[in-house]
Amino acid sequence: MCGIIGYVGGQNVLDTLLTGLDNLEYRGYDSAGVALRNDEGVDLVKREGEVSALKAAISSLDVNGSSGIGHTRWSTHGEPSDANAHPHTDCSNEVAVVHNGIIDNYSELRERLSASGHEFTSETDSEVIPHLVEEHLSAGKSPEKAFAETLKTLEGSYAIAMVISGEDTIYAARSGSPLVVGIGEEGYYLASDVPAFLEFTEDVIYLEDGDIVILSDSGYKTIDENGAPVSRSVETVEWSPEGAEKGGFDHYMLKEIHEQPTALERATRGRALTDARMTDGGAATNELDPSFIEDIESVQFIACGTSYHAALYGEQLLAERGIKARTTLASEFVASPPPLHDDTLVIGVTQSGETADTLEALREASSRGMKTLAITNVIGSTAARECDEAMFIRAGPEIGVAATKTFSSQVTTLAQFAAFVSDDPDDLSSVQAELSSLPDKIQQILNDSQAAALAHKYCDAESFFFVGRGTGHPVALEGALKLKEISYEHAEGFPAGELKHGPLALVTPDTPVFAINTGENVDRMRGTIREVAARGAPVVVIGEESTTFDEVTDHLVIPSTSPELAGILANVQLQLLSYHIASLLERPIDKPRNLAKSVTVE
Ligand code: AGP
Q1: Does the beta carbon of 137 sit less than 6 angstroms from any atom of ligand 1?
Q2: Would you call 304 a catalytic residue per the annotation?
Q3: Fewest CB within a 10 Å sphere: which of 45, 231, 257, 361?
Q4: Rounded-to-10 torsion of CA 370, 374, 375, 381
Q5: Is residue 404 in contact with ligand 1, taking CB distance under 6 Å?
């Protein structure tokens, strides 16, 4: 899940590439590099570490060009280092390539190339690409042909961009990793994700797997691997460049936590059950047609990470309406596919719409004849395009690696989906009535939360445990994941009733227990709270005023709302808690170690 950027046109090429890399850094921050084509050949600079390290190196060099490519890396093959950083070149430094994905057959290709005299300078799988191009060029093929022939020998997943000395052209292709083209007044852009060039243009082409695109300052063409033209429509994205900026907050994560009131308002606005179709903000758009679900008897959710927790929440909302539902981790769904019935709807929950495990599981389900639905945040994402239908959570761009507003928007969308499937108009309107009250309630939490004070109190704890029942269970899992991701502290989420069957052995006076006391189980949670309090553990309840007990040490209060939606509010408190603990521990909150925003490799 690296980040690729490319540009050819009248703007300052280096500045455009570096801006793109800054906007893509949430996709990987192990190393960064650029290659610019100029009359002397190809200028290439790359450094281990963040984009700031690359900028520092460039500041003392004279790097320029009239077209170029750039890369931020999340290491898969070869440790973070200058040598393993992209771009990679051929033996003559005439061809420079950046790659996102995994070349499965790279070792045999490398062996063959080494045997025919090519010298490799990195441990990466990606470095075989420029050497393969070099072979075809020295066999007299044109750059376009050499690039296309090279792609035919690659197995695995890739998004690739290439510049070659002697011409202001960018050659690029995608197969399994995302790649978009930006059509601007000042030239043509290429990137792994739209936010990279959103401040320059909102006109975008979403490339499909197997597409090759050739950009030059006189225009662009999209072809298939045999050179036949393929037509791809230009779409205008609704996201604003400001959406991709920090907006005065210290971190994208905190900004995105504070964006939840407006995000939830968007995720609910204009979604009305009609006998025609479920509209999207007034005009009927590509939202769900009742006929799509009329023969559905059960739902199979597949997802990863935070999206998996949102799907677990959705499963509960369906179950409460008597609809059979199951949630499986995407990577496990692929590893051991569960039995599916013809009347099962398979739903992939994925904010980026590009998570490789989830895409593979969706393809597996579709290959078995299942109807598939993507619930995603990104219009034009692979999941949205490959599934039979898509519902959008409308959270806007999420840059912080730790998902926050997208969890709330996913659960909000799933609550409406559950009510829609229950086919009870009263159900949907009452769910929406309650949902439309949540933006103000979240704002209240953002204004009054005691999370920062509790973070001070507990940030040195040995471990952190989160417990909940019903819809409180996925919120407990999500609370633990958020804290782990950004603070690197040991945290675990459990179904509250499970503690006494083992995990209670971990509970001590140094392990605060956060009890999500929401939903229909408020009284039942009392037993669990007593159990952990009896072991001397500090207990923090997250729930309405009335949900606290004598045994409780601290309380993160949430405004009252319907039992089934209270988990959304409780989770906002846990997001703030994690943020403040990570901030006290001075962690790189937006770019936690070893992680990346969208995991596009298996
Ligand atoms: C959550 O904070 C993480 N970034 C990660 O677990 C994420 O939820 C997971 O990779 C799934 O991503 P998706 O929703 O884009 O598919």
Answers
A1: no
A2: no
A3: 231
A4: 170
A5: no
Q: Which atom of ligand 1 is nearest to the CA of 304?
A: 11
Say how many Å lie between the CA of residue 349 and the centre of ligand 1: 10
Gap between the Cα atoms of 24 and 33, Å rounded: 12
Instruction: Report the C-alpha gap between 35 and 221 in whole angstroms.
Output: 22
Is 387 among the residues known to form the active site?
A: no
Residue with tokens 């197997």: 210
Distance in angstroms (rounded) separating the CA atoms of residues 43 and 57: 13
Cα–Cα distances (Å) from 541 to 476, 504, 554, 556, in that order, read 12, 17, 6, 6
**Is residue 206 within 8 Å of 380, Cβ to Cβ?**
yes
pTM of the entire predicted model: 0.85
* Residue spans of beta strands (DSSP E) within 39-84: 41-48, 67-73
CB 408 within 8 A of CB 571: yes
Which residue in this structure is represented by tokens 């909150």? 589
- Of ligand 1's listed atoms, the one at least distance from the Cα of 598 is 15
Please list the residues that pair with 541 across neighbouring strands. 515, 555
Convert the pLDDT of each residue in 516-575 to its tens digit.
999 777 788 999 999 999 999 999 999 998 777 777 889 999 999 999 999 999 999 999
DSSP structure class, residue 371: E
Contacts of 90 (CB under 8 A, 6+ apart): 118, 130, 131, 133, 134
Residue % of the chain over a pLDDT of 70: 96
Which residue, 311, 446, 326, is CA-closest to 391? 311
Which residue type does 523 have?
D
Two tokens, residue 554: 């601290």
Q: How far apart are CA 222 and CA 469, in angstroms?
A: 52
Place of tokens 């002397």: 40
Q: Residue 139: name the closest of 128, 150, 127, 129 by CA.
A: 150
Q: Is the CB of 307 under 6 A from ligand 1?
A: yes
CB 286 within 8 A of CB 324: no
Contact 227, 211 (CB under 8 A): no
Which residue has the least CA distance to atom 15 on ligand 1? 352
Dist. CA 496–CA 498, nearest whole Å: 5
Atom from ligand 1 closest to the CA of residue 410: 14
**Distances in Å between the alpha carbon of 195 and those of 192, 398, 427?**
9, 10, 37
